[in-house]
Each structure stands twice: as structure tokens, then as C-alpha cells.
């Protein structure tokens, strides 16, 4: 099922007004209800839409406070309204075009609009209006996994190979351009309390050397890994050459170059778990080439083994190094890859989970 990403909603927000007080008896009106956004990892675009359909699509409102009466001198406080939003939502003031708040923490409530004060002696017993303004909710997809590599490394093929046999749901969420793509993959194996194992993967267009300087629109693509929980480097075991007249790079040099691009763009990205996937190990001599990369990376100061123009300053310590042949759905490496990703996203999960139903038995060899 393809879901069209609607990534911006405009709303009029109006928190509850305070109820009037009762001057004669010193009665205090109830405060108006607040409006909160509740960030949740398990809220998806679709669910958000449903929630809003049930409410009013254009408006967010909270209850007004009750006025004080002769029989009830303290008016009841207006009820708060809580909207669940996917973690990562940005709230933009539609009038000033500035970001009010980023709902980046799972299960946290963010106060969006404060209800008005109830009427009391300090305001002449007149209930105050609640905060009211126009906002845009900008929905940014939470990306679990970001695939990075030079063109032709096999990122898209790897993504296809990772797609479960029994597809429950595969959705393409295009960003503003058709690429990069975020795919949301769900596996139907039951994982205890967590229910289904689902992850979103961003398949980013191939980087080129100098991406950190925005060559080949590098910034636009690298930006998407900033939110990713895990980064997967995909390199071609047989090496890489961008075009006839550019330098040929071995797989090891490619690893160094990707490391460099990432650190020069934003060195904090190197703190994320990074898995190296050496792909195309089905091609002649590629097993040996992949083994040579592994051996190099075992060295503590591995960059010094590379030519100067491929050397990163801050060498990555890879979470794991996997050898894959994505085109043949050769699953040994891929199963390990899924396992890595799964435990990274679900650190408390038990490890007896049977992950991946192969597309065909022959692929298990
Ligand atoms: N022999 C072999 N070829 C592969 C493998 N994986 C991918 N390929 C081939 O390599 C070529 C590039 O694969 P893609 O998956 O399009 O590579 P990509 O990294 O997504 O490329 P860009 O979109 O340009 O960044 C295709 O012809 C694939 O069929 C593999 O494991 N073995």
C-alpha cells in the first residue's frame, strides 16, 4: 500500500477561556483547559489523520472553565485537550513562520497553548481568554535506519532484499522530491510485548566525494541521517568509480571516504551505531576483497593504511561488519543485519526471536 505523505497541517489553536468569577461572593472561575501535544513513537501519519478526523480537522480546542456560581463558588477547571503526534513533529507558528517547539522526545507532553485564567479578584472576576494562534504541524518521519553509500553500491537492492516475504505493509513515503525514499517495513513475526517488528529505512541517493561540501546535493541527503537511529554503510566489495575519468576506489578506500564525508558534514553522526555492509560478495574475488577490508578495520589506526585523500580523522568503530550479496537475496549477511537493527531499536528484547522468513529455501545456502 502506498501512502501519500502529507507532511504539513495547518490548525487554528484555541485553549479554553477561564470562567467568570462571582465578585459578590469572592467566587473564582475555573481556569480554561490547556492544549498539549503528546509525542509518541507509535503514532503514524495515518493514525494522526484519524485522530484529527474525529476531532475537527482545522481546529484544536480545549474546554472553557466553568463560571463561579452562588452554589459553586469555585468553578470547575476546563478539561485539557491532548493530541497524539508522531515523535519528531515540529510546531511552527503559521503567522511568524518560526518554530515554537520540536516534539522530539517519545512519550513527552508538550504544552502548546495555555488556557485562560479564571475570574478572580486580580482580574476583576473576568475570565481571561485562552491562548489562540495558527500553527503548522510539520511531520518529519522518524527514520530508524539510514542507508549510505556511493552510487551503485546496492542500497536499493539491499532494501528490496530486506523486504519481508509476507508483506503486511510496505509504504513509500516520498519526501518533497521523489528521492530519498523512506520505506516502512513491517515483519509479521510476533515479538512478544512489542508486537510487530517494524522499521523505517531511508534509502538515500548515492553520495559522491565532496558530499559534505554539498556536491551532488550531498547536504540534502545527509540531513536525513541526522535523525536515524542506525546508519548502514553500503560499499561495493569490488570498489567504486564514479565515471570513466574519476579515480577508482577500492572497497577499503570507499569505507574511508564515507567515514570522511560523514565526519566533515557533522562529526556527531559518528556517535551513532554504524554497521558496515560489504555488498556484492557474489562477484569473482570479492570475498577476498571483503576479507581484506575486514582485516584493515581490525587495526586500531586503520586510516593510516589508506591513501591520504581517503583518510578520516575520526575512524569509525563499526558495530558490525557484514558481507552481503543483496541481488541474490543471499540472506546470511542480511539476517545478521536485521538482527543488528532489531536489537539496536529494541535493546530489551529477548534474543530468541526468529527473524526473517526467507523468500526461498535456496537462498539460505
Ligand atoms: N553482483 C551483484 N550485483 C548487485 C548486488 N547488489 C546490487 N547489485 C547491482 O548493482 C547495481 C546497483 O544497485 P542499486 O541497488 O541500484 O544501487 P544503489 O546503491 O541503490 O545505487 P544509487 O541509487 O545510484 O545510489 C544494480 O545493477 C544491481 O543489480 C549484489 O549483491 N551482487
TrEMBL record:
Its main location: nucleus. It is found in: Nucleus, Nucleolus. Residues 143-338 form the OBG-type G domain. PROSITE patterns: G_OBG, OBG. Keywords: GTP-binding, Nucleotide-binding, Nucleus, Ribosome biogenesis. It holds the Pfam family GTP1_OBG. It comes from the Eukaryota. GO terms for molecular function: GTP binding; GTPase activity; magnesium ion binding. GO terms for cellular component: mitochondrion; nucleolus. Residues 3-142 form the Obg domain. One of its GO terms (biological process) is ribosome biogenesis. InterPro entries: G_OBG (IPR031167), GTP-bd (IPR006073), GTP-bd_Obg/CgtA (IPR014100), GTP1_OBG_dom (IPR006169), GTP1_OBG_dom_sf (IPR036726), OBG_GTPase (IPR045086), P-loop_NTPase (IPR027417). Belongs to the TRAFAC class OBG-HflX-like GTPase superfamily. OBG GTPase family. This is GTP-binding protein 10.
Amino acid at each position: 500500500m502506498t501512502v501519500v505523505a502529507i507532511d504539513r497541517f495547518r490548525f487554528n489553536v484555541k485553549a479554553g477561556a477561564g470562567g467568570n468569577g462571582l465578585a459578590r461572593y469572592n467566587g473564582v472561575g475555573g481556569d480554561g483547559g490547556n492544549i498539549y501535544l503528546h509525542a509518541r513513537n507509535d503514532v503514524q501519519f495515518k493514525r494522526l489523520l484519524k485522530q484529527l478526523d474525529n476531532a475537527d480537522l482545522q481546529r484544536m480546542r480545549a474546554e472553557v472553565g466553568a463560571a463561579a456560581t452562588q452554589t459553586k463558588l469555585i468553578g470547575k477547571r476546563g478539561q485539557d485537550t491532548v493530541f497524539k503526534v508522531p515523535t519528531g513533529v515540529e510546531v511552527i507558528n503559521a503567522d511568524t513562520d518560526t518554530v515554537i517547539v520540536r516534539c522530539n522526545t517519545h512519550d513527552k507532553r508538550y504544552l502548546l497553548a495555555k488556557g485562560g485564567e479564571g475570574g478572580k479578584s486580580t482580574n476583576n472576576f473576568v475570565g481571561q481568554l485562552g491562548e489562540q494562534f495558527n500553527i503548522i504541524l510539520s511531520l518529519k518521519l522518524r527514520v530508524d535506519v539510514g542507508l549510505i553509500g556511493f552510487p551503485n553500491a546496492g542500497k536499493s537492492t539491499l532494501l528490496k532484499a530486506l523486504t519481508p516475504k509476507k508483506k503486511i505493509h510496505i509504504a513509500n513515503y516520498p519526501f518533497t522530491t521523489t528521492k530519498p525514499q523512506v520505506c516502512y517495513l513491517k515483519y509479521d513475526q510476533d515479538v512478544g510485548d512489542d508486537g510487530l517488528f517494524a522499521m523505517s529505512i531511508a534509502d538515500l541517493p548515492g553520495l559522491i566525494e565532496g558530499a559534505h561540501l554539498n556536491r551532488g546535493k550531498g547536504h540534502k541527503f545527509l540531513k536525513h541521517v541526522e535523525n536515524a537511529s542506525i546508519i548502514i554503510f553500503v560499499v561495493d566489495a569490488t570498489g567504486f568509480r564514479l565515471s570513466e575519468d574519476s579515480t577508482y576506489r577500492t572497497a577499503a578506500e570507499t569505507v574511508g571516504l564515507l567515514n570522511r564525508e560523514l565526519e566533515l558534514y557533522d562529526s556527531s553522526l559518528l556517535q551513532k551505531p554504524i554497521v558496515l555492509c560489504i555488498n556484492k560478495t557474489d562477484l569473482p574475488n570479492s570475498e577476498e576483497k571483503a576479507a581484506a577490508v575486514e582485516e584493515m578495520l581490525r587495526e586500531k589506526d586503520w586510516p593510516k593504511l589508506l591513501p591520504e585523500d581517503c583518510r578520516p580523522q575520526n575512524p569509525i568503530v563499526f558495530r558490525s561488519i557484514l558481507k552481503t550479496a543483496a541481488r541474490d537475496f543471499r540472506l546470511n549477511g542480511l539476517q545478521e543485519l536485521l538482527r543488528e537493527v532489531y536489537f539496536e531499536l529494541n535493546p530489551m528484547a529477548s534474543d530468541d526471536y526468529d527473524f526473517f522468513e526467507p523468500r526461498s529455501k535456496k537462498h539460505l545456502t
